[in-house]
Amino acid sequence: MVQSNEDLKASKSPEEQLNQQRPDKDGFVDKAWSFFSSMKLGLFLLLIIAVASIAGTIIPQNGSPQEYGSLYSLYSTLGLVDMYHSWWFQTLLFLLAMNLFICSVNRASSLWRLFSNPRIKAANGEISRMAHSFQTEKAISEESLVQQVEDVFREKGYRVFTERESGKTYLYAEKGRFGIWGSLISHIGLLVILVGAVIGIYAGQEGQMPAEVHSTFHIRDVQGLGKVDEDFDVRVDDFKTVYRPDGSIQAWISRLTILDKGQELLTKDIEVNHPLEIRGFKIYQAFYGANIPTKVTSKEIPQGYDFTINEGDFIPVPGTNLGVLAYKYVPDFDPQYGLQSKSDQPNNPRMVYVLYRGKEQIGVGAAELGKTEMLAGGEGQITFQRYAPYTGLTIRRDPGVAIVWLGCVVLLIGLGLSFYMPHKRMWATVEGNKEKSLLYFGGFAQKNKIAFEQDFIQLKDKL
Amino acid sequence: MTDMVAQENLLFYITFAAYGLATFLYIGFLVIRNQFLARVGYYIIVIGVLANTAALALRAMVAGYVPLTNGYEFLLAFSWGIASVYLFAEKKYQIPVAGAFVVPTAWLILAYVAVLMDPASRAARPLMPALQSNWLTYHVITAMFSYGAFAFSFGVGIMYLWKKSAESREKQRGVVAFLPSSEKLDEIGYRLIAIGFPLLTLCIITGAIWAEYAWGRYWSWDPKETWSLITWLIYAAYLHARFTYGWKGNRAAWMAVIGFLAVLFTFFGVNYFLSGLHSYAK
N or C terminus of chain A with fewer C-beta within 10 Å? Predict the structure, then answer.
């Protein structure tokens, strides 16, 4: 996929004749090559990827089978449940990458010729068929007219080449020749981004870790991370939620210390938008909660069960039809304040719970942490042992990210050259003697024709 | 504080009125072809942009952050982008008649805010942790300018389609005859896309960098991300078709129109029909 392979087109306008063409070939490899380098394929892929992406935004992605109802089996066969990672979508992206790559290779040599060895001579006939051209006769010598044309070009910042041949002077002037590389560079940038993305898919790792405050975990014990070569521990020194005066949340902050075999390496406060980086891993503040180790017993089952629950969980009491909803933790409980905590300090930590018999609500209470609470006159007992807040960390390693950013920089440089540095070219011939000379003068720009026209008119006025 | 909120509200309505009046003047200019109307329209937009800027500045003072985070703030910035790019492009390309096709978009966006957004959803809200990032600011500023450029190319695309259909039927009387030649419109439409496209790319990249800091993923195929990519693909196709197949004229104009519809859907459609990470923007 190449932005402007105007230089390869088969049409016969003078613009094209000034550029080189690639000879046609017939072999299978050449056919495959020309198929992959065709702009038709590139355009087709761009549009088909756009249309498929629309489908992916309409059909919910990565939902549970229930969400799709009867369509689930159809969707999952067609890869629509996780469309962006389905084999056919990835194939489309791969084909686009191939197209980008082959087009870039194809273009490089002709761009190099255009850049390093521009064609200096253009016949009068060619010049007069260019997008802009004019001719004029001046009552000055050929030499001084050539000099005048050169000066006018240079004044406008053009680079001028002059060649004299068989009684005629040929001039070529160009500006913004680095712009030629814009489209190639931007396509290379896109390829680099795709390479980075693929590396991320195959070598990237992501895990989630709910880590209690004051606890330490080893990097290899993080759920979902897979195989880890690094060897360090993470200690959670603190976790807090910072509120604004109006009660809204300003930040969640975890203070983490990284330890290598017991040796403290660094301590950092992380929050959303400010992850910690250590040996290729990034640790993000992602979620939070609290673990509540809980014991439930009843007359029938006196040995009871131990759970670790969270706020909002419902715990059935074994051997009875009772159930307890652990409604809300209140660090400084005071009956006058109800569910509101009197202060942030755990002066009177209680778990406010709702007791159910079957589906019927039969009571509410505020259980003191660590003390056994009688339920329904001793039919059951529950103990909320302690309230252990944890910080939810996402831990990622993606060796492709740096490559993606590199690709982005290359892409932006390419687009900048391509769109803000248009390549403008002009040709002229001067023919004459000591008294009078004839000037043919013409040129064109592939991009930004308006600016070119302004340049051209200004030059013309000076000649 | 309440004083500032009231002033900000007043500035919003001044901006709204200015873009409305300018729309009216430019359409008047198109119909009766009196240069004076376009002149006045231009200065009314200047006033509108000043009021728009002041409204955004006041919002920044009220909220205490760069005011580009919720739907109201973004729409205010969107209309700012359209009007500012308009002021620049009208002068640069000497095409005052474009006002009748571009300024209404800025006005309609504010009309949407005035009619459909209740005061609660317009109010400054405390910034949730994920939105506290400088990258968000760069992200929205680049969006503002690129969308402004695309809005202009959309207006010019409409002009082109109208002009062209009249040219082909050789019926060029009245208003249509007054429009610039179709070649000129085609080239101007392209220029605006050529300005907007690198900015859209930058917008997507800054968004990706922000997402990497906030969520650890530079790309997660969330509907808004995907729609910005769809928009990007449409404009990329436009540019490629133009340079290789010489797709100009009608097909190019249609793509410019479709491209801007995709821009609008990225904002409105995704917020109201689809859900995802960007749901805070509602």
Answer: C
Q: How many CA atoms lie within 13 A of A173 on its CB side?
A: 24
**Token digits of residue B224:** 């808004």
CB atoms within 10 A of CB A415: 23
Q: How does residue A26 score in pLDDT terms, banded at 50, 70 and 90?
A: low
- Type of residue at A427: W
Residue B105 CA to residue B23 CA, distance in Å, equals 9
Which residues of chain A have a CB within 8 Å of the CB of B236? 46
Task: Give the whole-angstrom CA distance, residue A269 versus residue A283.
Answer: 11
Would you call A43 and B233 a contact, using CB atoms and an 8 Å cutoff?
no
Distance from CA of B86 to the nearest CA of A (A): 17
Report yes or no: A373 and A177 within 8 Å, Cβ to Cβ. no
- Between chains, do A42 and B240 touch, taking CB under 8 Å as contact? yes
- Asked if A361 and A352 count as a contact pair (C-beta separation under 8 A), the reply is no
d(CA A356, CA A178): 76
Q: Give the percent of chain B with pLDDT over 90.
A: 58
Whether residues A252 and B129 touch (CB distance < 8 A) is answered with yes
Q: CA nearest A276 in B: which residue?
A: B213
Tell me, yes or no, if A240 comes closer than 8 A to chain B by beta carbon. no
Round to whole Å and give the CA distance between A280 and A397: 6
Task: Check residue A201 and give left, alpha or beta (phi > 0: left; psi -120 to 50: alpha).
Answer: alpha
Size of interface A-B (CB pairs under 8 A): 122
Q: How far apart are CA A429 and CA A127, in angstroms?
A: 9
* Structure confidence by residue, pLDDT tens digits, A141-173: 888 888 988 998 898 889 999 998 888 899 999
User: Rounded to the nearest 5 degrees, what angle is found at the Cα of B245, between the Cα atoms of A48 and A96?
Assistant: 35
Beta strands in A150-280 (DSSP E): 159-165, 168-175, 205-212, 216-218, 233-243, 249-260, 263-270, 276-278
Residue B165: CA count within 13 A, CB half-sphere:
9
- For residues A209-230, give the mean pLDDT: 90
